[in-house]
Specification:
Blueprint (H helix, E strand, L loop, with lengths): L1 H5 L13 H11 L5 H12 L1 H8 L4 E5 L4 H10 L5 E6 L2 H14 L4 E2 L2 E2 L18 E5 L9 H14 L4 E7 L4 H7 L6 H17 L8 E8 L4 E8 L3 E5 L2 E5 L4 E8 L3 H10 L3 E7 L5 E7 L3
Helix pairs in contact: 2-9
The chain binds N,N-dimethyl-L-histidine (AVI).
N,N-dimethyl-L-histidine binds next to strand 11.
């Protein structure tokens, strides 16, 4: 937080959204009418489960980057032919343990091996169960869009390395009418605003800060040259906040930049994957071309 507030352009990583309250709010976002990505991706997974299973072959070992929505990985596991293993990787040990426990109960034959790690850093995976088929990475939700372009490339290079001889199933949100994007990040019920503001509430709780939550507004807009939604917390007035006895001033209108959510074209995503060492395979999109699901093979 000192680094974020001390910078000339104040910004903080979106990973700090996800404390217990933030994760709950994100789950609520995924149910919003305006937030099309979750239901669209679930629809793509359902519609193309058979093709995905055929590409993966029998006894695949699924490696999920982020122990995200169990709903999504269950669709995948249900479609696959006798999946041999599931390796969810997440920075939050608690979230991971819960996810692993639930899946163990429901898939008795599946070897579930959670890995507590930051998957944006170099990664070592456990040796899989014997006689498995391919290693299939799963990175849904367009979380790739929350990385900067350089981070996204670094992540994909790492994924291509750990998935060598296998493939990555990747969800990516598509460039579209800015009005649709704007609505998705400025929902009528104010859930996204609460999600954004929870970052300040969390700083108050965990760092003993004194952010006045009414003193900041949720700001989200589409930056079209950079093809990304930007989320900011906008200071409604001149004010000061303290951290460890150090004061930081906010001018009226000054912002703390909390998230970028990059949008892709099918071609731009495939080009990025090629640069990272993947061989792109089939791409599935919905009829309105809102979202895309990519099969990216990682040559042996
Ligand atoms: C997790 N991530 C892909 C979401 C997104 O759309 O960038 C996070 C989010 N931020 C606001 N609404 C949803």
């Amino acid at each position: 937080m000192h680094a974020a507030l001390g910078a000339a352009r104040r910004s903080i990583s979106p990973k700090y959204f996800y404390d217990a309250r933030g994760s709950q709010l994100f789950d609520a976002i995924c149910e919003l009418v305006e937030y099309y990505p979750t239901r669209t991706e679930l629809g793509l997974l359902r519609t193309h489960a058979g093709e995905i299973a055929a590409l993966a072959g029998p006894q695949a070992e699924v490696v999920e980057f982020g122990a995200g929505s169990l709903r999504k990985v269950r669709l995948l596991l249900d479609a696959l032919d006798r999946p041999a293993g599931y390796v969810p990787i997440d920075i939050s040990g608690e979230h991971l343990a819960q996810a692993a426990q639930q899946l163990r109960g429901d898939y008795p034959g599946l070897a579930v091996q959670p890995v507590v790690a930051d998957y944006t850093q170099p990664l070592q995976l456990p040796a899989g169960p014997h006689k498995t088929g391919m290693r299939l990475g799963f990175f849904p939700g367009s979380t790739i869009g929350n990385f900067d372009p350089e981070q996204a490339l670094r992540f994909l290079r790492m994924a291509a390395r750990v998935l060598r001889g296998g493939a990555l199933l990747l969800g990516a949100d598509l460039v579209k009418d800015p009005a649709v994007l704007h609505a998705a990040y400025n929902d009528g019920a104010g859930v996204t605003a609460a999600f954004n503001l929870n970052l300040l509430a969390r700083a108050n709780r965990e760092l003993g800060m004194d952010f006045d939550l009414d003193g900041f507004a949720h700001g989200a807009f589409y930056n079209s040259p950079r093809r990304r939604i930007e989320m900011h917390l906008v200071s409604r007035r001149a004010q000061r906040v303290q951290l460890d006895g150090q004061a930081y001033l906010f001018e009226e209108g000054e912002t703390l930049h909390t998230e970028n959510s990059h949008k892709f074209s099918v071609d731009s995503l495939r080009a990025l994957a090629v640069e990272a060492g993947f061989t792109p395979g089939p791409v599935w999109t919905d009829p309105n071309r809102l979202f895309s699901l990519h099969w990216l093979a990682s040559p042996a």
